[in-house]
Every structure is written in C-alpha cells, then in structure tokens.
Design brief:
Layout (H helix, E strand, L loop, with lengths): L18 H17 L18 H16 L21 H8 L7 H17 L4 H4 L2 H15 L5 H13 L13
Helix pairs in contact: 2-3, 2-6, 2-7, 3-4, 3-6, 4-6, 6-7
Length: about 180
C-alpha cells in the first residue's frame, strides 16, 4: 500500500486593504442591506459536514464516484467522449457539489487546481495506484477537499490508505447523495 504525496500548493499574498474603499462602499452597503431579505428555506446551507473517519469517507467517495459515472452517457451531448479512466477530472466538481458550494465559485477553481496539480505531481511515483480509475477519483476527490481547506494531510493519507485496502467497495451500488 502506498501513501500518495501531495504537490505543494502555491498561495498568493492578500492584497492590502484599501481603507478608503470602506468609506466609499458604506452608503451602497447600507442601501443593499436594506433591500435584501433572506428568507429561511430559500437560502441553502453553504456546505455539509465533512465525513468523520475513513469508513464514512469511503462511503461518500463511493457515492461521489457513482455520481460522476452518471455523467459518462452525456459526454457526447456536449461534444466529449470519456470513460471511467477520465472520471478523476470530475472529482473536484462533485466535491464542490457534495459540499453544497456554488458550482461557479472560487471554491471550484481551488478544488480543481489542488486535485489536478496533485494528480500530475504524483503520476510518476504512484502510477500503479492512479491507473485504477476508482483510486484516481478518490485521490482527486480528497485532494479537492484539501484544496478547499476542509481536511489536512494526515486525514488524506489515512483515508487513502483505507480506500486502497477497500477499493472494491467503491464500485458497489447503493443510494447516492447529492
């Protein structure tokens, strides 16, 4: 069993805050705040809780993999043909969906960048593991969560070891979460 290593993610320093911007934006913020009303039941919770423990992660990854597999028949409709070997590309989008972040958000960009850069960085050293479409998807799904700041390295390593030992369960059918 191998432990997948991560590519370091580069971070950009935050831009300095423009103090004058607050003064200029305050009147507009007051007008917008007065006009916006949030109604309970219409606004969805931004994210769902992250699984606790490797077994819970395995179940969520299984559901996420099943969700991604449902996209395969629709590939030709949008001009793309792909199969299970390319499903790891969908792992960040499914992770964002399962965490209930907006699908066109900076979160999707961060998740995608983390997943795909980690995948490429590990392709040579973990070729045998990543050649299994289920494990490649699981790795990118976990890397997406790492990129979103929802899990740490220790969690990813522990869960990947568990998933490698139980990879047959990733193909099992069962109820799918969205």
């Amino acid at each position: 069993m191998s432990i997948l290593k991560w590519a370091p993610l580069e971070t950009k320093p935050n831009r300095p805050f423009d103090a004058d911007l607050r003064k200029r934006a305050a009147p507009l913020a007051r007008r917008v705040k007065g006009n916006v009303r949030l109604h309970e039941g219409i606004v969805k919770k931004a994210e769902r809780s992250v699984p606790r423990g490797p077994a819970a992660w395995l179940e969520e990854i299984r559901a996420a993999y099943a969700d991604a597999q449902e996209a395969i028949p629709f590939g030709p409709v949008v001009g793309l043909r792909f199969d299970a070997r390319e499903l790891f590309h969908l792992a960040p989008a499914v992770a964002v969906k399962f965490r209930r972040f907006p699908s066109r958000s900076a979160a999707l960009k961060r998740a995608t960048e983390a997943a795909l850069t980690s995948y490429v960085a590990n392709l040579d050293s973990q070729a045998a593991t990543l050649s299994d479409p289920r494990l490649a998807f699981a790795f990118c799904y976990l890397a997406s969560h790492f990129g979103l700041g929802l899990v740490d390295m220790a969690t990813v390593e522990t869960v990947m070891r568990f998933v490698e030992r139980h990879k047959g369960q990733l193909s099992a059918t069962g109820p799918r979460e969205a």
